[in-house]
Amino acid sequence: xxxxxxxxxxxxxxxxxxxxxxxxxxxxxxxxxxxxxxxxxxxxxxxxxxxxxxxxxxxxxxxxxxxxxxxxxxxxxxxxxxxxxxxxxxxxxxxxxxxxxxxxxxxxxxxxxxxxxxxxxxxxxxxxxxxxxxxxxxxxxxxxxxxxxxxxxxxxxxxxxxxxxxxxxxxxxxxxxxxxxxxxxx
Length: 186
What we know:
- By secondary structure, this protein is α+β, with helices and mostly antiparallel strands.
- The two termini are 13 Å apart.
- Helices cover 31% and strands 27% of the residues.
- The radius of gyration is 15 Å and the shape is globular.
- The protein is built from five helices and seven strands; from the N terminus they run βααβββαβαββα.
């Protein structure tokens, strides 16, 4: 695990980010999205909200540390995919990226959030619980690679005040847990 860079930011994902975003995808998931899915999310989807945690460097020195895609459908923010670069996991990038993206969708009108997570992805489940997600269902045999169940999790009260309280708890506790893997392991 590398230390968290001092010069990173949360920002919208761009097409220029996709080679590094896709490397994170391939390193993180046994069922990766196709590269063209990311192109579509950025250029063709009206519901996709795509963000990255990235260093502030430019050009070849820029490094993508994490990525997330959220679908904003009416008042629901649905976490479609979320992962942190393998060298930067468990140091705070994941919770910061999730927090940023939920704030942005909340500002656009989301009042609750949903996601699916592998039943065996305990680190991601733990992160989501710290965000007040609760299990509301099970999708049996959801993942086709090994027929693992997906837990359906919901965050009922997505408000800016609640997100600020979650951030304060993370900062006060010193928890630096990256996370991810709504569709697979982080």
